[in-house]
Design a protein that fits this description.
The structure holds two protein chains of two kinds. Chain A is mostly beta strands. Chain A contains no helices and eleven strands. Helices cover 0% and strands 50% of the residues of chain A. In chain A, the strands form two sheets. In chain A, strands 2, 4, 5, 6, 9, 10 and 11 form a seven-stranded mixed beta sheet that branches. In chain A, strands 1-3-8-7 form a four-stranded antiparallel beta sheet, with no helix packed on it. Chain A is globular. The chains are: A mainly beta, B mainly beta. At the A-B interface, β5 and β10 of A face β4, β5, β9 and β10 of B.
């Protein structure tokens, strides 16, 4: 069974540019989460999809971040325009049920210079 | 909102010794507490979890204890090995958000 996959694994962009991260959850997992880890800190919740609907996006830092999950399969997280403080590792996770194990992707390391 | 505090931030032990990592949480309705291990350059992976209807759970060299009254839970690793070196994250299920809230992580280093 394929796990959660994220693309790209690394991205280096200049301040002001746009970046789009992609996450492919485990097939059949309705729940998809985006998290971010800034250097040395906790893995912080960004948002939660149930199928194609945003269940909770209270963790999104500001309106420069836009997440979509059209069709309820893969998800994208766009940062536009990127700022220096957006640097970090962005993780995606999926689960079959909110009460069961969440499986993580390998993360996208975003560096804004 | 829900808050999870994790201590220590770094932990160094000699191979064969035990390691203990502690977390406290604020949401009294939380009922699911997983622990994730993240090795360098790899994804976080679930190593053990506990639900609120039990006080302790063991899986070989790792165990987790939960004290719901005090709202804290701990990870215990016995007979540590170099391959246990990693960052460990505790988490709980935020019942309002229905997503995991993580602690800040503990970097465990096992010295051979």
């Amino acid at each position: 069974e394929a796990g959660v996959t994220q693309f790209p694994s690394h991205s280096v962009i200049e301040k002001g540019q746009t970046v789009t991260l992609r996450c492919d959850p485990i097939s059949g997992h309705d729940n998809l989460y985006w998290y971010r880890r800034v250097m040395g800190k906790e893995i912080k919740f960004l948002l939660h999809f149930v199928k194609e609907s945003k269940q909770d996006e209270s963790g999104m830092p500001n309106n420069r971040f836009l997440a979509e999950r059209t069709g309820g399969t893969y998800s994208t997280l766009k940062v536009q325009p990127a700022e220096l403080e957006d640097s970090g590792v962005y993780f995606c996770a999926s689960s079959q049920d909110t009460r069961t194990e969440a499986f993580f992707g390998q993360g996208t390391r975003l560096t804004v210079v | 909102g829900e808050n999870v505090e994790q201590h220590p931030s770094t932990l160094s032990v000699q191979e064969g010794d035990s390691a203990v990592i502690k977390c406290t949480y604020s949401d009294s309705a939380s009922n699911y507490f997983p622990w994730y291990k993240q090795e360098l350059g790899k994804r976080p992976q679930l190593i053990i979890d506990i639900r609120s209807n039990v006080g302790e759970k063991k899986d070989q060299r790792i165990a987790v204890t939960l004290n719901k009254t005090a709202k804290h839970f701990s990870l215990h690793i016995t007979e540590t090995q170099p391959e246990d070196s990693a960052v460990y994250f505790c988490a709980d299920l935020d019942t309002g958000r229905r997503a995991l809230t993580f602690g800040s992580g503990t970097r465990l280093q096992v010295q051979p």
